[in-house]
Amino acid sequence: AQSVTQLGSHVSVSEGALVLLRCNYSSSVPPYLFWYVQYPNQGLQLLLKYTSAATLVKGINGFEAEFKKSETSFHLTKPSAHMSDAAEYFCAVSEGQAGTALIFGKGTTLSVSS
Amino acid sequence: SAVISQKPSRDICQRGTSLTIQCQVDSQVTMMFWYRQQPGQSLTLIATANQGSEATYESGFVIDKFPISRPNLTFSTLTVSNMSPEDSSIYLCSVGKREYEQFFGPGTRLTVL
């Protein structure tokens, strides 16, 4: 069965600093990987996705993630944090067929201080 | 993409009652999903709802507690039955679209007293 592990339930950075949110996956087949963001009292918004094309994926709001098969990782990064980036971030993996449910990690809360 | 709406957006209910949550999509989709997000937790899949067939429930979730309807390709309902405080969660519906991505509704925030 596929699974996702997000290392660090809470990450704190200063405004302008690098953001690094870690995600490792377990899958016996080529995975489809996603990062979602959830702002307080809102639903989930797709940040970016990996679907077996380019290993470096660029998303919205300046975020990007790199798929590393050898490390089974899909870490999310942003060069310079903004206060507005403070939110909950979820890494998710698809079971591999279009239209199937996602398996989510436990989430990482990102705090940004001025 | 897909635009998904949910009703109600939030509710406060009494123990032992039931609440039906509606999910409406702006386009036809084959599969819809219902997730639960307990306070401070990640999302857990409750069931997959296909139009014209019975919903498929994940381990730990049963139809008597969470009956689901899927009358057409743009609409689904989830009922939380005989509620207890442990059912206090955010309930989200989602739809699967191209390239395996899913779009989520804004969620229904349920508090059970």
Element string of chain A (H = helix, E = strand): EEEEEEEEEEE
Largest sheet of chain B: 7 strands, mixed
> What is the helix/strand order of chain B?
EEEEEEEEEEE
What is the 3D shape of chain B? globular
> Helical content of chain B, roughly?
under 10%
DSSP, total strands of chain B: 11
Helix content of chain A: under 10%
Give unreliable regions of chain B as ranges. none
Helix tally of chain A? 0
**Secondary structure category of chain A:** mainly beta
Strand content of chain A: over 45%
Mean pLDDT over all positions of chain B: 92
Assembly type of the chains comes to: heterodimer
Please tell me about this protein's structure:
- The complex is a heterodimer of chains A (114) and B (113).
- Chain A is mainly beta and 114 residues long.
- Chain A has strands at 3-7, 10-14, 19-26, 32-38, 44-50, 56-58, 64-68, 73-78, 87-94, 102-104, 108-113.
- In chain A, the strands form two sheets. In chain A, strands 2, 4, 5, 9, 10 and 11 form a six-stranded mixed sheet that branches. Chain A has a five-stranded antiparallel sheet with strand order 1-3-8-7-6, with no helix packed on it.
- In chain A, a hairpin with a 5-residue loop joins strand 4 (32-38) and strand 5.
- With 113 residues, chain B is mainly β.
- Helices cover 0% and strands 52% of the residues of chain B.
- Chain B is built from no helices and eleven strands.
- In chain B, the strands form two sheets. In chain B, strands 2, 4, 5, 6, 9, 10 and 11 form a seven-stranded mixed sheet that branches.
- Chain B is globular and about 40 Å long.
- The model of chain B has no long low-confidence stretch (mean pLDDT 92).
- The interface between A and B is medium-sized, with 25 and 23 residues.
Short description:
The complex is a heterodimer of chains A (114) and B (113). Chain A has 114 residues and is mostly beta strands.
List the helices and strands and how they pair.
The complex is a heterodimer of chains A (114) and B (113).
Chain A: E1 3-7, E2 10-14, E3 19-26, E4 32-38, E5 44-50, E6 56-58, E7 64-68, E8 73-78, E9 87-94, E10 102-104, E11 108-113
Parallel strand pairs in A: 2-11
Antiparallel strand pairs in A: 1-3, 3-8, 4-5, 4-9, 6-7, 7-8, 9-10, 9-11
Chain B: E1 4-7, E2 10-13, E3 19-25, E4 31-37, E5 43-50, E6 56-57, E7 68-72, E8 75-80, E9 89-96, E10 102-104, E11 108-112
Parallel strand pairs in B: 2-11
Antiparallel strand pairs in B: 1-3, 3-8, 4-5, 4-9, 5-6, 7-8, 9-10, 9-11
